[in-house]
Amino acid sequence: MNKLTLVRHGISIGNEIGVIQGNENYGLSRNGIEKLKNQDFSRLINITNIYTSNLQRAMETAEIIKNKINFYKKIKIDPNLREVSAGILEGNTKDYCKYAYPKEYEIYSKRGDYNDILNASTWQENQARAILFLSKYLQCDNQNDIVVSHAAFIRCMYNLLNNRYRNTQFDIPNGSIFEIINPMSKLNIVDFPIAKTAIVKMIETFDNKYIVKFKNNHLKLSDYLEMDVLNYLNKKMNVPSVIQMDNTEYGQTKVMKYLDGIHKFGDLKDNDIVHIFKEVSTLNKLLKKYDNDFSPDGNIKKDLLNCQKNLFTDFAKEDLQELINDEKFNNYLKKVDRLLIHNDLHRSNLLIEDDEIHIIDFENMKKYPKDLQLATLICSCFLLESPNSNYEDYLKYANLFDKCDKDIIRNLIIYRLLYGLAFFEKRLLTNDCDESDKEIHKKYIKVLKGMKNERSSY
Description:
It contains 15 helices and 14 strands. The chain is elongated. A hairpin with a 4-residue loop joins strand 7 and strand 8. The protein has three domains: 3-181, Phosphoglycerate mutase-like (Rossmann fold), CATH 3.40.50.1240; 188-257, 2-Layer Sandwich (Phosphorylase Kinase, domain 1), CATH 3.30.200; 270-456, Alpha-Beta Complex (Aminoglycoside 3'-phosphotransferase, Chain: A, domain 2), CATH 3.90.1200. By secondary structure, the protein is an alpha+beta fold. The longest helix has 23 residues, at 406-428.
C-alpha cells in the first residue's frame, strides 16, 4: 500500500507582493520560513521519499520539512511537480492583470481552465504531467512519500486522484497538508497487454482518458522524433500525440492522447479494408512532406544481414539468401527515394471505429524505401491476419500509393516477413517467450511458405 502526502510550499515573496507566480522562481519570504519552522510536521513519519518541484519556494519548503522530521535521504527534485503555467499572467501582480488582461484574470481568479490564456498550460497537459509523476505508484509498493508542490498543481493532482471534476474547489493555504492512501485506487486503469517491448495502460480520470506507456530504457532521439511527427500529423489526421514524457527511476514514461476504437483481427469486411488503405495512403502522403534532418535512416540490406543471426528455419534462411542476392532488388534499394515509414502496421496498431481508422504506435520510425509503406501494410495488416490470402489480392489498392513494381512489392513483403520472423525466432529462445509469440511465429511461417509457393508458380 502506497501513501502520498501533498504539501503546498510556504509563503513566498511572490505571495506577499500579490504576484501571479506560476513558474516564476520566487523563494520563501522570511515570514514563510518562520511559519514553516514553527509548523507541526510530527505526523509525517516513516517517510520513504521527499519529492519537490524544481521551483525555489518548493525546494526551500522541502528542505525545512526534511530537517524538521530528521529525514536522512536526499530530496528528489522533479520538474513535473512545478506549478501550472499561467501564461501571460505570470510575473505580474494581480492588480495589474485585472486591468491589462481582464478576461484572462477572470479565468485565473475563478480557478477555471487556463486553455484560453495565452501561453498557459492546458488542463490536459497538467493532468498528463500529474499522471507522469503518479505513474510510479503503479510500479512500486509500500511507498510513503511527501510531495511538495504548488496550489494549482496540487488541486489538479488531488482532484484527479479522488476521481472528481478537475476544477473542484477547496482551500489550499500555504503549508497545508493532504494525505492520500493508495493514490491510484480511485482511477479506472486498464492494462493493454499488446506490446512486446513496453507496458501499456489506459488511465481514466473524471475528465479524460490517457494512454500511459512504460519502457525500461531512457528516452532517445527517436522518442523526440516521434513526438514531433505526431504533432505534425495531428494537424491533418486523428493520431495519438505525446502530451508529456520523461525519464523516470524505472526507465521512461509517456502519457499520450487516448483514441477510441477497437482492434479487429482475422478477415475484414471490404469497407474496413478500403478505409485502412485510404488512411495509410493519407499517412504516406503527409510523411512525404515531413521535413526533419534528424530522421534516422533504416537499412534493409543491413536488416537482412542481421536476420541471419536469429533465423533458424531452413527454408527462411534460403529465402533470405535469395533476397540478399536479388540483383533487381539491390539496384532498387540503391536508387529509390526514401521517406519516413510506419513499419509496424499490424492490427494491434490500428483502431477501427465505425468508418474511422486510427493508426497508433509511431515509435522507431525510420526512413526506408517509399514503397515499404504499402508492402508492410499488406504484410502485417492483411497477410498475417488472413494467411490463406494472396498478396496480389491487395494490389488493387496500390493506386492509392505511388506507382510501384509488383515484383518489388513482393520482395519488400518477403523482407518484412523475414524481419518479423527473425524477431520472434530470437524470442522463442528466451525466457520472455509466451504462447502468443509461438502463435505469431506460426503465422509468419505459414505466410512465408505461401509467398514461396506463389514464386514457384511463376
